[in-house]
């Protein structure tokens, strides 16, 4: 059963939450909190008003959800269920405030869980850079490659990132985009040229490169440009051109023909530096 911090007969301290939500009280143990946090240790060394008559109360500024999550990171009980970075961020702030090393260690790992990173990698990057978590910052930077980091960030997210760290991310995206765009000219398809128009491959490939350059300038990742879904409308458009030779027009309907080309291109793009 989940641990109940409201019903602990051996508790010798009550942590009372603050915030704008309803106040909650958590019955805890000074010894455990003092071992986990030098800040709590100092707080508990001071005289507690009314401690002689009842269990002393320690008022905290954090809300109830944050206090409970923090306790679940300290105690040997089931950990907190932090389902988003919005839920994780205040707990991390509190762990830093109270200098709780065991909580910080667990939260740093949670910060780069794939399910949280995929939801909002830029927010994860902002959190990591704010606290100087270099390893987590690098991991988060890789997940931002699938984002338009110029037009998609919210004002709140941008405000949470320093100018220097945002510039660092922009340079990473730019260099990655330039590297991927160069590969569009280095990797060539191995399709036969139409015996009639002699230009089928050249036409679709040039159009593919043009559209791929545009896409890579925004999202410098292989995920979109190396998919058949991205290539299909390009080939279909060329297929509807002037050439009437079956060998030429048939090519557009056999997209599997281009899978090898896309896989080679994907492999080359994925070999580029994928983190800051």
TrEMBL record:
SMART domains: BTB (SM00225)
BTB domain boundaries: 11-75
Name used for this protein in its record: BTB domain-containing protein
Transmembrane segments: none
Organism: Thelephora terrestris
CDD domains per record: BTB_POZ_ZBTB_KLHL-like (cd18186)
């Amino acid at each position: 059963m989940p641990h109940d911090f409201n019903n602990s007969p051996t508790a010798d301290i009550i942590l009372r939450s603050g915030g704008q939500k309803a106040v909650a009280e958590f019955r805890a143990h000074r010894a455990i909190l003092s071992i986990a946090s030098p800040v709590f240790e100092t707080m508990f060394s001071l005289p507690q008003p009314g401690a002689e008559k009842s269990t002393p109360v320690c008022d905290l500024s954090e809300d109830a959800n944050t206090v409970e999550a923090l306790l679940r990171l300290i105690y040997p009980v089931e950990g907190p269920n932090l389902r988003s970075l919005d839920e994780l961020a205040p707990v991390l702030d509190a762990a830093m405030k109270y200098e709780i090393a065991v909580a910080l260690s667990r939260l740093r790992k949670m910060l780069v869980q794939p399910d949280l990173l995929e939801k909002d990698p830029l927010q994860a990057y902002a959190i990591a850079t704010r606290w100087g978590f270099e390893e987590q910052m690098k991991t988060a930077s890789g997940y931002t490659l699938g984002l338009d980091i110029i037009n998609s960030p919210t004002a709140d997210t941008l405000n949470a990132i320093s100018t220097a760290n945002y510039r660092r991310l922009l340079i990473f995206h730019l260099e990655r985009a330039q590297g991927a765009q160069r590969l569009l000219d280095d990797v060539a398809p191995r399709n036969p040229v139409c015996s009639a128009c002699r230009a089928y491959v050249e036409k679709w490939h040039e159009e593919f490169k043009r559209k791929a350059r545009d896409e890579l300038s925004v999202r410098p990742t292989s995920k979109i440009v190396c998919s058949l879904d991205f290539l299909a409308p390009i080939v279909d458009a060329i297929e509807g051109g002037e050439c009437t030779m079956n060998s030429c027009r048939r090519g557009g309907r056999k997209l599997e023909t281009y899978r090898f080309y896309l896989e080679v291109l994907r492999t080359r793009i994925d070999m580029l530096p994928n983190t800051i």
